[in-house]
Design a protein that fits this description.
This protein is an alpha/beta fold. It has 32 helices and 23 strands. The chain folds into four domains: about 180 residues, NAD(P)-binding Rossmann-like Domain (Rossmann fold, 3-Layer(aba) Sandwich), CATH 3.40.50.720; about 190 residues, N-(1-d-carboxylethyl)-l-norvaline Dehydrogenase, domain 2 (Orthogonal Bundle), CATH 1.10.1040; about 180 residues, Alpha-Beta Complex (2-enoyl-CoA Hydratase, Chain A, domain 1); about 80 residues, no CATH class. About 45% of the residues lie in helices and about 15% in strands. A hairpin with a 3-residue loop joins strand 15 and strand 16. The longest helix has 19 residues. The two termini are about 55 Å apart. About 50% of the residues are buried.
Length: about 775
């Protein structure tokens, strides 16, 4: 149980408001205070406006709009006494030392004994923040550096002072990890801490090398993106996203606080082009544009990119450098390529990765902390030391020597070795002394990647694997592209059910991909359509329905543990599971109408059953029909696990885990708890609206069609869906068995998949990733 039960956030700007919203997401009451506007009749106006802004922001800072009720707005003159009830007080005011000191003096007058005070600063050293503050304040003070946006960026850097209490740091560590779901990394009180120090060098070196080598921004972003496991934004699109006008502030802070001979300061540039862009309002997405912009005068809008030499914009084009194509196959091929793209990659990686190696132990005690900070704070797939291992330590050192760059001591100690190694199935990292230690996980963290190092799968095929995660629980993992579902997944799921029944207690369905599952493999479906393999399609349809039915009625609990997208068939397995333990950031829904189909593996059946049995739904057959039709017909997708509960995809009894790294352990615990006295559900027939309900939906659809809100083919798909959800040709007094609903669903699916306009929708989705309205 956390000792932090109420929080105050001082400063309701972008970061302060976002922090308050995310604390509310965790169910913790928050007091949000800001200054009193001059001459304002409403003294709380700034904080109230911040909450209103948060409710309109996209992507949403709140996981559910109702979470805003947990945030109490106030001001820094009238409501400071509220701090006496708060266990943690977060300062997120202006990055001005005088303003912060004045704020701390107010906090110290009103806070209770033992409350923790932290700053969200990323530019002011902790030593300067606590200067002249009393010892009581210093004992309770630390830095908690969130990354923007606080809900979505997992990294939280904690920096302690020389007098900070151990138990205060322990309390913050536990709360931010377990309750807020953050990846907590302990940094040292050095400028930029970990992520921004390394990330700042990465961006500065990329900008400088791009200009020196005459690269187009599209080329630079393509290279500093997927080949290295960086986000596809690369560098320039990332700067557009965070705001180009932040660059001078960060640079000034680094120059002010770092030694003059630090490589970051030595290589720092102040390009006239960027100064000009900021002066003219080209600050990125929040301004007129940035390194990229949209020309909205053309229909459709045209994406343009700036020329780093001339400052003029041109229509953005896909880069054609051979080094980029080489990089899609082999990272080392990109780094070894002779064209300007290869030279760019070598320069940026040499500066960035050698700088990271030179900073340990200055900014963190271990390479593990640095790698984790970059993965969580900058969304790198691999941290700097993991990247050096992928390049090869000796090859990287040879590259530095060829470029006549110094070799940091830590890198010299790794010569002939690697920064990470696996010994007897255990992951180890190289210490600053040159030896190796085990990579320790936090208590309550269970990762499938660790299990896979130590063991072999119980069962495996090309699409899925079954792992023993201990205590009588097996784990089914999908590992197709984007975890799309196919016949092999269904085959292994069937075998997994038999294996659990034979010798185990429960099954967890989980994987550590970016998405739980994007649904059925529609590329495979299109292949079968083009060859007119209709029996193959029907066989997979029947197999999916039967497999998911077996999941639902298994004599042991099946617990699904989704994170990221769980769409279509991925959503349907949640609907058939005995329980769900979802990551808070789960985006789920039945989206098949987007490709001209209806849910075909029991999704229609389960949704209408849940809506019909929902005690909160008004009586009669029409409300459940309307709610189910709306959810499926509009392809609604939850924006969080909290919204998935509103949609009845998650039940009240299902769990939500805030920290992604704790999801498997929580799902396993839920499975074991259910297994103690588990009884599978019994089939229960339902009464549905029948042709009358379908006709009512048809009238509403015709109105939408007349208004231009539904296409001709939307009516065809929706009519098929309405027939399934209303129970087909049945009377409202008839009881309908689940198998009857499944048969109706199968009938609709197999009819629609033969339609030319469905095939057009599938082709368009595969080509563009977007639905076609035909």
């Amino acid at each position: 149980m956390t000792s932090i039960r109420k929080v105050a956030v001082l400063g309701s700007g972008v970061m302060g408001g976002g922090i308050a919203a995310h604390i509310a997401n965790a169910g913790i009451p928050v007091v949000l205070l800001d200054i009193v506007p001059k001459g304002a009749a409403n003294r709380n106006a700034i904080a109230e406006q911040a909450i209103a802004r948060l409710l309109k922001t996209d992507p949403a800072p709140f996981m559910h709009p109702r979470n805003a009720r947990l945030v109490t707005p106030g001001n820094l003159e009238d409501h400071l006494p509220l701090l006496a009830d708060c266990d943690w007080i977060v300062e997120a005011v202006l990055e001005d030392l005088a303003v912060k000191h004045a704020t701390y003096e107010k906090i110290e007058r009103y806070r209770k004994e033992g409350s923790i005070v932290s700053s969200n600063t990323s530019t002011i050293p902790l030593g300067d923040l606590i200067k002249a503050m009393p010892e009581r304040f210093q004992r309770d003070f630390c830095i908690t550096h969130f990354f923007n946006p606080p809900r979505y960026m997992r990294l939280l850097e904690i920096v302690r002072g020389p007098k900070t209490r151990d138990d205060a740091i322990a309390a913050m560590d536990e709360f931010c990890d377990v309750v807020l779901g953050k990846g907590v990394v302990h940094a040292k009180d050095r400028p930029g801490f970990i992520a921004n120090r390394v990330g700042g060098m990465w961006m500065q070196s990329a900008i400088g090398a791009s200009m020196d080598l005459g690269l187009f921004v599209e080329e630079a972003d393509a290279i500093m993106g997927r080949p290295f496991g960086f986000p596809r934004t690369g560098v320039f699109a990332l700067l557009d996203l965070v705001g180009i006008d932040l660059m001078p502030h960060v640079a000034d802070s680094m120059k002010r606080t770092l030694p003059a001979d630090d490589p970051y300061v030595v290589n720092l540039r102040d390009p006239p082009l960027i100064r000009k862009m900021i002066a003219e309002g080209y600050t990125g997405r929040k301004g007129k544009g940035g390194f990229y912009r949209l020309d909205r005068s053309k229909k459709p809008s045209v994406k343009e990119a700036i020329d780093l030499k001339t400052g003029e914009y041109h229509e953005s084009e896909k880069p054609q450098l051979e080094s980029i194509r080489a990089g899609t196959r082999d990272l080392r091929a990109l780094l070894g390529h002779a064209d300007r793209g290869g030279e760019f990659a070598r320069r940026v990686m040499a500066m960035t990765l050698s700088y990271a190696a030179a900073l340990v132990p200055e900014i963190a005690d271990t390479i593990v902390a640095v790698d984790e900070a970059m993965r969580l704070g900058y969304a790198w797939k691999w941290g700097p030391f993991e990247l050096i291992d992928r390049i090869g330590v000796d090859a990287f050192i040879a590259g530095l020597e060829q470029a006549k760059q110094p070799i940091p001591p830590l890198l010299q100690k790794a010569k002939g070795k690697s920064f990470y190694r696996v010994t007897d199935g255990v992951l180890e990292y190289m210490t600053v002394e040159g030896g190796y230690r085990t990579v320790e996980r936090r208590g309550g963290v269970l990762l499938l990647e660790d299990i896979k190092r130590k063991s072999k799968p119980v069962l495996k095929n090309g699409s899925a694997s079954l792992w023993d995660i201990g205590d009588g629980v097996l784990c089914l993992e999908f590992h197709t592209k984007m975890n799309a579902l196919d016949g092999d997944v269904m085959d292994l799921l069937t075998k997994a059910l038999a294996e659990v029944k034979r010798a185990h207690k429960a099954l967890v369905v989980y994987n550590e991909g970016s998405n739980f599952s994007v649904g059925a493999n529609i590329g495979l479906a299109l292949f079968a359509i083009n060859l007119a393999l209709w029996p193959m399609i029907e066989e997979l349809e029947v197999k999916g329905q039967n497999t998911y039915k077996a999941v639902k009625y298994a004599p042991f609990p099946v617990v699904s543990a989704p994170s990221g997208m769980a769409l279509g068939g991925g959503c349907e397995i949640l609907l058939h599971s005995a329980a769900v333990q979802a990551h808070a950031e789960t985006y789920t829904g039945l989206v098949e109408v987007g490709v001209g189909l209806v849910p075909g593996w029991g999704g229609c059946k389960e949704m209408i059953l849940r809506q019909t049995r929902n005690p909160k739904r008004p009586g009669g057959p029409i409300p459940p029909l309307s709610a189910s039709f709306e959810a499926i017909g509009l392809a609604k997708v939850s924006k969080s696990a909290a919204e998935a509960r509103d949609m009845l995809i998650l039940r009240e009894s299902d769990g939500v885990t805030m920290n992604r790294d704790r999801l498997l352990a929580d799902a396993k615990a839920k499975a074991l708890a259910l297994a103690r006295e588990y009884r599978p559900p019994k089939p229960e027939p339902v009464t549905l609206a029948g042709p009358t309900g379908a006709a009512a939906l048809g009238l509403a659809l015709n109105d939408l069609h007349l208004q231009g809100k539904a296409t001709d083919y939307d009516l065809v798909v929706a009519s098929r869906l309405a027939r399934v959800l209303s129970g087909g040709d049945t009377d409202t007094l008839d009881e309908i068995a689940e198998d009857r609903l499944t048969a109706l669903e199968r009938e609709a699916f197999l009819a629609l998949i033969r339609e030319p306009r469905t095939i057009q929708r599938i082709e368009h989705m595969l080509e563009t990733g977007k639905p076609l309205r035909n």
